[in-house]
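Lay summary. Proteins are chains of building blocks that fold into shapes, and those shapes determine what they do. In this project we predict the shape from the chain. Here is one chain we studied, written as its sequence of building blocks.
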Amino acid sequence: MTATSSHEAPPDSDARAARRFAVLGLGRIGLGYAMSIAMQSGLSLAGFAEPRAPLRRFAQGAGFRVPAAATLPRLLEMVEADAIVVAAPAEERVAAVEAALASGRAVLIDGLPSPHAEGAARLAPALVRRDATVGCAFGLLFHPLFARARRLIAAGALGPLRELRASVNVSRVFAPDAPPQRGDAIDFCLAELLVLLDAMFGPALAVGATANHLFGERIDEVHARLGLAGGAEVIVDASWSVPGYPHASIVIEVRADRGALLVSDDALEANLEAPFESLPAGQSRRVLAEEPDPVAFETGAPARALEAFVPALRGAPVPDALSAARALRVVALVDAVRRSVATGGAVRELAR
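And here is the predicted shape, written in a compact code that computers can read:
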């Protein structure tokens, strides 16, 4: 990426008309949001907050000609901003979200607001305040195939659900000279799948889980059963140790009274009694390339999240795809998974 005018702050007259975003956290994800903000009409990049000076220098050397500061309060003394994007790493996430919420501005958090239940409990009152404009963004909820599957299930096109299975696999390298990995398979691949399952099937009311440790003390594989309202269960498998998956691969299978569905990152296969949207009755298959604007999704999940969030800056409700309440539920579910694993698979009930 070279330095171009598209990364510069717009002239003052345009800046006042644009929605100005500050980005807190300058890792890969934060830079992705910065690029999406700089490229979208009606948005402007106000500046960066990042405690690591080398990352601030990298962003400015890459062509982002906007102010940068070590802390968010310092940045907000330098620039005006309508909203904050929080893309800080997990170990800094709670403090970063607290700083963003304390600014009084709209806040878009990439991923879970906290990696643990204690942090979520600290943040919950501010996250779900009725007068707060807060969203939590997960790329999977903007994936065109999973979005279509969500609409199909929400419309009742399959009828009552009977059998539900979900899996996520990704390959990580555990060679002696490999970079150290933070977290484990629950953090790295299971958590976002649980967000998607909540969006598709509703909140889990109970969970029982077991885990395998293949390469050391950290959890490498998880096997769980989620109990849903109405008695249905979702069987979930997650691993970061299966060879051949350089990127996370998710598969969800649904069998119901009036049809069946298999959806993955690559394709959606359905067997329906009645047509739904562009899916005919009977067996059908759609691949990602047949969905609207698949290239934009693959290269710009942050852009989709921003597009969904911007209307909330004008007074519209924060959309369900960015629900902070769902993110808090999933933090509690992740905690319940860990507690179940620690007790040999004992079922943990979750608050309704």
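What the prediction tells us: Residues 5-110 form a domain with the Rossmann fold fold (CATH 3.40.50.720).
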